[in-house]
Amino acid sequence: MTTQTTWATATDVLALTGQTVTDTQVGVANAVIELIASRVYTIAIANTGSRDVEWMRRAVAWQTVWITGQPDYMTRLDINAITEGHKSIGLKDWALVLAPLAMRALNKVSWRRTRSI
């Protein structure tokens, strides 16, 4: 039996998305989610509540599937807008590196929400 080192597994991805992926693809997506969320699974899992674990699991699952459809994912440039003729299309923060559903899940983890005093 191997020890889990990612917020989600290939089995989780299949269950949540219906897509079959490899452990390597999950590992890449997990690294991206950890970078954006500032939570490394192997360090944070013992102190992370079940609600936040579930949102991280979902974020990694959706990110994994999204990355598999992005052939130039690791070689993209960081840009603010794309110009098509005379029109400019603005891209929101992280649009080139983060799946839309993964961003929604990350916005639900407790440490990323605003806190009022």
Order of helices and strands: HHHHEEH
Shape: globular
Q: End-to-end distance, in Å?
A: 45 Å
What proportion of the residues form beta strands (DSSP E)? Answer: 5-15%
User: What is the rounded Rg?
Assistant: 16 Å
> How many strands appear in the DSSP assignment?
2
Low-confidence stretches: none
Kindly state the mean pLDDT as a whole number? 86
Largest beta sheet: strand ordering: 1-2
- Main pleated-sheet profile: 2 strands, antiparallel
Helical/strand content category: mainly alpha
Q: Helix segment count?
A: 5
Can you offer a commentary on this structure?
The chain is mainly α and 117 residues long. Helix 1 crosses helix 4 (50-68), helix 2 (23-37) crosses helix 4 (50-68) and helix 4 (50-68) packs antiparallel against helix 5 (100-106). A two-stranded antiparallel sheet has the order 1-2. Strand 1 and strand 2 (87-90) form a beta hairpin. The protein is globular and about 45 Å long. The model has no long low-confidence stretch (mean pLDDT 86). It is 45% helix and 7% strand.
In short:
With 117 residues, this protein is mostly helical.
Features:
globular; 117 residues; two-stranded antiparallel ribbon; 5 helices; mainly alpha; 2 strands
